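User: quick one
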Amino acid sequence: MDYKYIEQLLTRYFEAETSIEEEQILRAFFRQDNLPENLCHFAPLFATLDEEATCTLPDSFDDRVLQRISETAQQVVRAERPTLLNVIRPWLQAAAAVVIVVLTGFGAQRAFDRSDNAAWDYNPASFQNSYDNPQQAYKVLENGLELFRRTAQADSVMAPLESKTLQK
Amino acid sequence: MPNIDFRSDLLPLKNKLFRLALRITMDAVEAEDVTEDTLIRVWEKRSELENIRSLEAYCLTVCRNLALDRHNLRANQNDSLDDTDHEAIDVAPSPLDQLVNSDNLARVREIFARLPERQRTMLQLRDIEGLRHSQIAEIMQTSEETVKVTICRARQRMRKDFETIENYGL
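Assistant: Done. Structure below.
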């Protein structure tokens, strides 16, 4: 019998040039009992590979790993359960942003818009009493005049000083 | 790969992952742990794996990395793993043909175990799991050409070492 094809496959196998299908042919060939003299010493190489492919995990493995999976699954569910605060947080943030914009708008309007302020009324005829007690009114007036006096005095003291520094 | 199911998508890969882990760690208990960790880790990351091309290749990559981590950890703590495996070669040769044959298998296994990790892993993926060069390149994160060259070296070294043992009856 001619084993040229097998020999050629073997050579290419050791060059890593064979395809998976060709390697299966080789493996099947070396599984048979009556191998030719010149090829039989390769048999243990391929037999070992066959044998190693049957190596499997013990049956208890499945139960153990499934047990671990169910434990981690429970943990994940617990961790991912959202709180009420987390759910409404975006809406709270949006509402807060709107409130800030509206308040700023109102504030700006009130600050710049003086159209609704009534003009100052200087007519003495329309003056009204601010105080019921004449004593109190007198004291307030006195305090006001005293304040005016002090301010005026401070200005007159400062004025010569300023003119001096300017001259220098 | 949307909607990964643990029982139908991940669990069937367990023996492949176990064999790869075993090939790297050379320790059945450790390989079992690595397989378990690989499956759990991939399962926990399943939501991020929707665009993955091959779940099998991804699992094998994770498995190899975990196995290498463990191997390095153990190599730092204890003697080299390679040293512990040398005991297997001391099995006394038997006069019976059948026993000689199984002895030969033990020798081949021994030679296999002594290959460098990359050669060992690639040969495992190719000759035992029957993966294509492109798939192995993806798992090992290298080029197809490198995979071919590495597998070629691994096979030639297996052959050379086995023939040496056979010829000189070591």
